[in-house]
Amino acid sequence: MRSVVLNNTPRCARCRLPPRWCVCAGLREVRCPLEIDVLTHHREWFRPSSTSHLIQRVMPESRQHLWRRERHIAAEEIRRPGREMWILHPHGGPVPAGVAAEQVQIVLLDGAWRETSMMAQGMGSWGRLVNLPMTGESRYWLRAQADAGRFSTVEALLWVMQALGLSPAHDQLRLQFELHVYAGLRARGFKELAAEFLQISPVPAAFPDLLARLHERRPNDEALSG
User: Cα angle at 14 between 8 and 15, to 5 degrees?
Assistant: First the structure.
């Protein structure tokens, strides 16, 4: 078995997956009343598996900002008028009751655990620090989580949507996320792990035709399987 990801294979400019596993045919844009800004660490910016790119792709009204240690982003650069800014942070308080999504701007930090901890320094004055009761296991199987209770950026956004009662947007974003993870596993050559991932995923029911096309054998598949 050989991973096409490790062979410098060209990637789709939109979904950042190798053309063999491109999922753009399954793209369904997600709309919700939240204003969403993602601060992406400069190292994460160039990682195709980064879920901040997924958020920007499927939620075109969201904004993605490049964070560098030598140039910190100021709150004024991303603050949206008429919204209360929430920064997801492990030391924050619970989601306040009775707040409408139309009143909220969510700021997500995208990077490795150590990177986001550094990014969060000094952000306490930006707005309300919010800590979500995220439980269970991450479905971001493209990366191993060092400790339980750690989730990808897009999963954090899913929890925000759930907490604010945005069920339709939550379900649509989850579908796009799970499709992204599945195709990423296949692109890396993890066929058995990808099949296990699908067992408890809504992807087969939502994208039967797309999966059928992805699973069609192609002339170069034998070469990729080694």
Answer: 70
What is the C-alpha separation between 226 and 208, in angstroms, rounded? 28
Give, for all 226 residues of the chain, the pLDDT tens digit. Answer: 444 444 567 899 999 999 999 999 999 999 999 999 999 988 888 887 789 999 999 999 999 999 888 877 888 999 999 999 999 877 788 888 889 999 999 999 888 777 887 888 778 789 998 988 888 889 999 977 545 567 889 999 999 999 999 999 999 999 999 999 999 999 999 999 999 999 999 999 999 999 999 999 876 654 444 4
- The phi and psi torsions of 24 (rounded to 5 degrees) equal -60, -25
Angle, in degrees to the nearest 10, between helices 167-187 and 153-163: 160
Q: How far is CA 95 from CA 1, 83, 120, in A?
A: 45, 15, 18
